[in-house]
Amino acid sequence: MNLISKLIVFSFLFIGGRNALAGGIRPMGMMNQKNSLKVKQIVTGTNATCAILDNSTMKCWGGNGYGQLGQGHTNNLGDGAGEMGDNLPAINLGTGRTVKQIAMRQSHVCALLDNSSVKCWGYNNAGQLGQGHTNNLGDDASEMGDSLSAINLGTSRTAVAVSVGNFHSCALLDNSTAKCWGNNPSGQLGQGHMNALGDGASEMGDSLPVIDLGASRTVVALEAGGSHTCALLDNSTVKCWGLNSSGQLGQGHANSLGKGASEMGNNLTAISLGASRTAVAIAIGNTHSCALLDNASVKCWGGNTSGQLGQGHTNSLGDASGEMGDSLPVIDLGTNRKAIQITAGLTHTCALLDNSTVKCWGDNTYGQLGQGHVNKLGDGSGEMGDSLPAIDLGTGRTAVAISAGEVQTCAILDDSTLKCWGRGSLGQLGYGNGTNYGDGANEMGDFLLKVKLGSSTSRLTKVLNKNIKQKYKPVSMGAYHTCAIIDNGSVKCWGRNTEGQLGQGHTNSLGDGAGEMGDNLPAINLGTGRTATQISVSYDKHTCALLDNATVKCWGKNSSGQLGQEHANNLGDDAGEMGDSLPAINLGASRTATAIATGEQHSCALLDNSTVKCWGYNFYGQLGQGNSTTKGVGAGEMASLTSINLGTSRTAIAISSGRNHTCALLDNSQVKCWGENTDGELGQGHTNSLGDGAGEMGDSLPEVNLGTGRTAVQISASGNHTCALLDNATVKCWGLNSSGQLGQGHTNSLGDGAGEMGNSLPAISLGTGRTALQIAASGYSTCALLDNSTVKCWGENGGGDLGQGNTTSLGDGASEMGDSLPAISLGTGRTALRVEAGGEQACVILDNSTLKCWGYNGSGQLGQGHQNTLGDGASEMGDNLPIINLGTSR
Questions:
Q1: What is the dihedral of CA 616, 621, 624, 629, to 10 degrees?
Q2: How many Å apart are CA 654 and CA 663, to the nearest integer?
Q3: pLDDT: which is higher, 888 or 878
Q4: Residue 599 domain flag
Q5: Are strands 408-413 and 418-422 parallel, antiparallel or unpaired?
Q6: How far are the Cα atoms of 60, 610, 613, 636, 691 from residue 587, in angstroms, in the given order?
Q7: Cα 94 to chain center, whole Å?
Q8: pLDDT > 60? residue 578
């Protein structure tokens, strides 16, 4: 089942990538190209499967007895000829709505939409659809689309992720709390009682309490299992509640928790994962639970009837004392093998390994282990480790993501296609029949077909275009941590530190408690005599620095090789990993760097020869290599990493990375972007990813059309939108516009449809006579430093990110921009030299060389020694907003 998290593979918040775009354009020819729709996310449940496609629609197939396929009927789909591909309708989620994440398990489905609302449909016996009744939805005409109400999560609350159990549903909210509703006989809703919630009027919204997980604890990831639920907390511990018949709660007993008073909050013990071990991800089966640990190993506990715990026996673990902690062995995945993703089915478990292969163990009745037989694996000695074969996915094919259903398994491959195996009786494998696959010889590898999900036609335009430069930035921020280069060239970072992204050799957050800033905040050890000239902070918990000797060092999370060290181990989270012990990244023989940029899980460098190299996660082609193969994890991948083809005789003068896309400002002052394009962030008038297929880079990659005669001087790529500061000091933005971040007075995405770029894309109104000096795009907001040294921000404002003393979004409605948009109050007599934005916060360097930040502060990323959000309430800005203490004379 799918893990939900703000922080992993399909995560959804994001920060500003860094820098911006350009392009005056002359068309040189056009062609139509028909492409197979690519798979962005896959989840598979008891008897159905759903996928998010690269056009942000979703399709479901398989069993449909309760309307879980969302088609307004109960006919199975995918079990007969002619039911898949273009013949399989996308689900109607409502006018203008697209999907960001999906979750399913038994017989219902929930979707997180582009406006951060949640809709659920299918079976509703216990209120798991969150509508205050028990009527199934999606099984009759007129129940989907605009007729299907979004779930009421509470006043001003939105969701960042969803997860579903057998008969209950959960949402991770925008304030890092969690709510669950539906069936509750074992306390899986975490409310200290056994009453179902969501099945009666007035049980949702503000009436539904958030789950108490302990004083000051917040939720990073949440997953619902069969009848239990687990949360990964902000301190990297795991707590589970609900049914515990097999020890799946990991407490050394078999008593259910969460159904009685005083069983939650501080009374609910975090699971012991072993000395100094913490969790980075969780996966939950029906009666077993698994954690991906900070050293890339895996531990599982709970029911083990089929060997799903991977220990070579069938004894349950976690149901008796002395079975957890250091006594619980890590699963042997093979010599030197580490895991980068885990998923759990009914009674089988799978891991995506650091060499992009997949191994599964446990029950194999239907071939769900993908071995061409039906023998269980992991239940007997000598069946794990090197003895457990990786699944054959086809010649030259590797995996980028996996999902285990009840008795079937699916993998998204490196070419963004989908393969599924196991039980197919209701068409859940999507092959147009009811046949099981993987249970017999010659059914896997090249014999196993790819699931057909339809095609799209894109219109590609080749263009030609013109030059200027960008300054480095001394401050950079992600969703939950911030870094600054101070005047002696040293670097200090503060905020969340779960992966070592603060570079201190531990995982304790800094800046969220008294006495942690100023002289008490250590500068990062960059190596003997080394200082920094640029710092770049990613959303997904890694940090990179360009050093004074033109080398690059990165630290923090490394699940996809984003640190460029040819392994997947985090760095900076343990003693002895920083300073001279942290190697500079191999950028190629005699190559050095002049600029850096970080995305969610990828990193880029502009080299001394004006070429660009990127490494790390590459599902959308953000590395610009014409494929979707991750780079930086395997031996020899950095030394052999090729520079990106930007076109004949073209070089780069600046780079910027969004969540999963990358942009370069070229030597001719034009811009090219590649990678994810779900919302038009590449500015090409379509939503096809670019850079993930052969023939998409170089001269085949069009420059962005910014209008007749217009060129760019700065680019700033964010989560799913991109902005350019133009040669006439105006600003244009395109891509996702869910909160008005494009500054057009509406919420329609731009750049995703034909005729929306070039002269058709209006410059943003900054006020009478006002122009821009610099821009900074964040996850769902944008800021500009104006010619009068003031700052204006627009877009999402849930955390006070716009600095207006309220939480009202701006730029999403008429008459909110231009003179109607107030400049931010920075203090009496103070003006700004630079603005930066990331996550749900923004920072300015003031004219007196001090630093102020405002917005969301759940991890101390504002550097004030507390976790209180600033900028969302009256009297919090201006002179009332303290400068950040970076140390004596700093």
A1: 50
A2: 8
A3: 878
A4: no
A5: antiparallel
A6: 43, 13, 8, 12, 20
A7: 24
A8: yes
Query: Which are the contacts of 570, defined by CB distance < 8 A and separation ≥ 6?
Result: 294, 499, 500, 556, 557, 558
**In contact, 204 and 189? CB cutoff 8 Å:** no
Task: Give pLDDT, residue 432.
Answer: 86
Closest CA to 111 of 148, 64, 66, 141: 148
Alpha carbons 304 and 430: distance in angstroms, whole number: 29
Q: Could you tell me if residue 809 is inside a domain?
A: no
Phi, psi values for residue 542, rounded to 5°: -140, 160
Name the CA dihedral angle for 738, 740, 746, 749, rounded to a multiple of 10 degrees.
-50
Distant-in-sequence, close-in-space partners of 86: CB < 8 Å, separation ≥ 6 = 454, 455
Confidence of residue 454 (pLDDT cuts 50, 70, 90): confident
Counting Cα atoms < 13 Å in the Cβ hemisphere of 1 gives 37
| Amino acid identity at 752 | D
**What's the pLDDT at 82?**
86
Q: What angle do CA 682, 839, 722 make, to 5 degrees?
A: 15
% pLDDT > 70, the chain: 93
| Backbone phi, psi, residue 575, to 5° | -60, 150
Concatenated DSSP letters for 305-327? Answer: TTSTT-SSS---BSSSTTSSGGG
Rounded Cα distance between 134 and 623, Å, is: 47
C-alpha 774/C-alpha 834 separation (Å) is 7
Closest CA to 809 of 763, 159, 801, 766: 801
Domain span holding position 414: 272-449
The pTM for the full model equals 0.54
Using one digit for the tens of pLDDT, what is the confidence trace for 86-103? 899 999 999 999 999 999
Give the chain's domain count. 1
Q: How far apart are CA 817 and CA 792, in angstroms?
A: 10
Q: How far apart are CA 854 and CA 877, in angstroms?
A: 8
C-alpha span between 274 and 237 (Å, rounded) = 11
Q: What is the DSSP letter of 530?
A: -
User: Is residue 405 in a domain?
Assistant: yes
Tokens of 812: 């999403």
Q: What is the C-alpha separation between 316 and 455, in angstroms, rounded?
A: 46
Indicate the residue type of 748: N
Mean pLDDT score, 620-649: 95
DSSP per residue, 716-778: EE-SSEEEEEETTS-EEEEE--TTSTT-SSS---BSSSTT-SGGGSPPP---TT--EEEEEE-
Residue 195 lies in a domain: no
* pLDDT for residue 474: 67
User: Measured between alpha carbons, how far is 465 from 704 in angstroms, rounded to an integer?
Assistant: 9
Q: Can you tell me which residue has the tokens 């029950």?
A: 363
Give the domain CATH number at 311: 2.130.10.30
- The single-letter DSSP state of residue 25 is -
Q: Report CA 559 to chain centroid distance, whole Å.
A: 13
Residue 845 contacts residue 833 (beta carbons within 8 Å): yes
Lowest mean pLDDT among 495-509, 617-631, 874-888: 874-888
Count, residues in the chain: 890
- Give 36's pLDDT tier (boundaries 50, 70, 90): low
Instruction: State both tokens at 809.
Output: 């979004």
- CA distances (Å), origin 124, targets 36, 47, 135: 34, 16, 6
